[in-house]
Amino acid sequence: MAPSSEIVRLLSPRLLADPPDLPPARALVPDWQPLKPFERAPVPAAVLIALVRRPEGHTVLYTERSPDLRAHSGQVAFPGGKIDGSDDGPAAAALREANEEVGMMARDATILGYMETYYTGTNYLITPVVAEVDPTGPFVPNPGEVHSVFEVPLERILDARSYGRFRISRGGKQHSTWQIDHDGHVIWGITANLTRQFRDLVVGEVAA
Asked: Are 50 and 164 in contact (CB under 8 A)?
């Protein structure tokens, strides 16, 4: 499966060809400051920013996490999770998770490259993996992990007018993230911030 020329033209010069080196913990600054210092090393993780090829144009794949999960229940996320010792790097981890969560076949994905790591206030060090996906079947949510799966047109993701701010309070401190509203779904937090970073990378703008 050959990636579409337009997506490759835009992304290839701007994505990392190889997974970025993980920076030392002492150099990391989380997206929000936790109330207490972390007592363990950051957890390496990977997410898949899947550009799904559709007749009407590319879309970006998202999941809504199961309300029964202990962490981030009900929130919108990219397919992904912790990198296991058996995974051959971030891409393998992201594709494995995408298969477990929504039944995406690894053979349907062409890895286009990687974005810089993203360190979260929950002590995860995320490597975003960007891929074009030409699905050979429907995406089916795994009920143990995913409540629903949906796609947002890439054109909407690239439009700066699609973004607002989501404001929350943690430990008496105000904190905000990007927010995207789409078809009844509210994308915020880590996922919205990564989406915005992806958008800025594609269009060649510096993140605000």
From this structure: no
| Cβ pair 195, 180 in contact under 8 A | yes
Count of Cβ atoms closer than 10 Å to residue 125 Cβ? 20
Reported as type and span, the H/E element at residue 14 is: none
Token pair of 96, please?
């494995």
Give the distance, in angstroms, between the CA of residue 94 and the centroid of all CA atoms in the same chain. 10
| Paired residues of 175 in beta bridges | 168
Residue with tokens 């993230």: 177
Contact present, 111 and 135 (Cβ < 8 Å): no
Q: Taking the C-alpha atoms of 24, 35, 44 and 17 in order, what is their torsion angle to the nearest 10 degrees?
A: -70
Indicate the residue type of 67. P
Residue 200 CA to chain centroid, in angstroms? 14
Give the model confidence (pLDDT) of 42-96 as tens digits. 999 999 999 999 998 899 999 998 665 455 445 899 999 999 999 999 999 999 9
* pTM, rounded to two decimals: 0.90
Residues sharing a CB contact under 8 Å with residue 41, sequence separation 6 or more, in sequence order: 25
Q: Which two tokens stand for residue 164?
A: 């607002």
Of 94, 83, 111, give the one whose Cα is nearest residue 22. 83
